[in-house]
Amino acid sequence: MEHTEGKVLVSLNDVFVRFDGEVILNHISLDIREKEFVTILGPSGCGKTTTLRIIGGFIDPESGDVIFNGEKINGTPPHKRNVNTVFQKYSLFPHLNVFDNVAFGLKLKKIPKEEIRRRVTKMLAVVDLKGYEKRSVQKLSGGQQQRVAIARALVCDPEIILLDEPLGALDLKLRKSMQLELKEIQRQTKKTFIYVTHDQEEALTMSDRVVVMNNGSIEQIGTPEDIYNEPVNAFVADFIGEANILNGTMIDDCRIRILGKELECVDKGFGKNTPVDVVIRPEDIIITTPETGQLVGVVESSTFKGVHYEMSVRCGKCEILIHSTKSAEIGKTIGMRVIPFNIQIMNKLLPFYNNVIEAEVKYTDSSENYFEFELEDETVKVPGHSYPQGTKLRITLPPEALSVAGDGDGDLKDLYIESVVYKGEHNEIILESDERKWLMLSDVDEQVATYVPLNFDFSRAEFEVIAQSEEG
């Protein structure tokens, strides 16, 4: 259940952070209420840990405000904020036993010994470590060490606990059990937990609300159910769980065309004949006979996953993923049906017109049939065309005309890969250069948050003269 009531404990208002000229947080705003478990989720490099460090006071924003209990706390150091942090590596003191590790912060505050004993004993009971007071932390398991770190953070009675991927060092089985323990500890202590992870299952399991981040921005905030069932765009749908994300056309309200077929849906307000992204979760596809299917495909693989079979079905050029309790034979033609409610329609992440270049011809060679123009301080050579020097052109590049330069020396260098979304037959990749974003289609699964050079295939481009050269 989403926390829409209760006091707002901490707010980030239009927070902007930049390191070495690179934007890390791009004017984000976020309200977190008391007693809620909020998870900040996203891929590496998206800005989630920086967001946590802003709240904790380890970093100050370049602009924007941090508000705590209604008061601006920009510049307030961590030890003067009513906040404690649990790090991935726990940062326990190896020469101290469990009791003294948990009591450390209380001793710094000169709390009376009897009060320290009472509070530490109570907190160790909360984290299920009663009787471990004299145990060396070096002789504890990873899960026990993590609980000591949580007890140490909680015992000083902060209003907010910040947790930076605290389960990352644990094995899978222990991590799953600790997810439930963490949520129970939060429920018992009634503290506000702000948790950072790149693990979607952790976010869905523990959170009251999930904040999905990408490339320094907040993509969506909502309950786990909202984020999973109603993603706002293809990035969120792809990052949260498995999904079939397909290119579609919204014919009209409640009518969508995908893979050459018209289907009924429940979404409205996208306009007529509008390109959209369509999300269908694998578990929402019903296997039927070919005659009764809305879509028809051939089963290419089937793998038993314990609670369901995961099947890959080829539908034309597109791969469809299905999760079903019943398996279909490899090579068999099947039908597929989806009820209208389970077809999610989203606006596209980036319109195609962003791949439009307005350029002035700086040099032309009519004998060799090429010309050159300047783009973001790079000289770009265009073979197969020549225009008089000074001609102004509008060059439109379809997404398939862009590719990563294999030799490392492309038309543009050092473009940042912002997102990679698989669309059933290719990856749809958004790249960011100094001045704009670009859309590229690729069969290669490029790595998000890396830098690559980009090549243009001008044989696929459209050229329009928007101003003749003065010479011409």
Describe the structure.
Strands 6-7-8-3-9-10 form a 6-stranded mixed sheet, with helices on both faces. The chain has a 5-stranded antiparallel sheet with strand order 13-12-11-14-20. Strands 15-19-16-17-18 form a 5-stranded antiparallel sheet, with no helix packed on it. Helix 2 runs parallel beside helix 4. It contains 8 helices and 30 strands. The relative contact order is 0.09. With 472 residues, it is α+β, with helices and mostly antiparallel strands. It starts with 7 loop residues before the first strand and ends in a 5-residue tail after the last strand.
Give a brief outline of the structure.
By secondary structure, the chain is of the alpha+beta class. The protein has helices at residues 48-56, 98-108, 113-126, 142-155, 172-189, 200-206, 224-229, 234-239; strands spanning 8-19, 22-33, 37-41, 63-68, 71-72, 83-86, 160-164, 192-197, 209-214, 217-222, 244-252, 255-258, 261-264, 274-280, 286-288, 295-304, 309-315, 318-324, 333-337, 344-346, 356-365, 370-375, 378-383, 392-396, 402-404, 412-422, 427-432, 437-442, 451-456, 462-467.
Please give a handful of descriptors for the protein shown.
472 residues, alpha+beta, five-stranded antiparallel β-sheet, 8 helices, six-stranded mixed β-sheet
Question: How many DSSP E strands?
Answer: 30
Mean pLDDT: 89
Widest sheet, order of strands: 6-7-8-3-9-10
Shape: globular
Structural class: alpha+beta
How many DSSP helices? 8
Provide the helix percentage.
10-25%
> Which parts are unreliable, with pLDDT below 50 for 5 consecutive residues or more?
none
- Largest sheet, strands/sense/barrel: 6 strands, mixed
Span between N and C termini? 68 Å
Oligomer: single chain
Radius of gyration of CA atoms, rounded to a whole number? 27 Å
Sheet-strand content, in percent, reads 35-45%
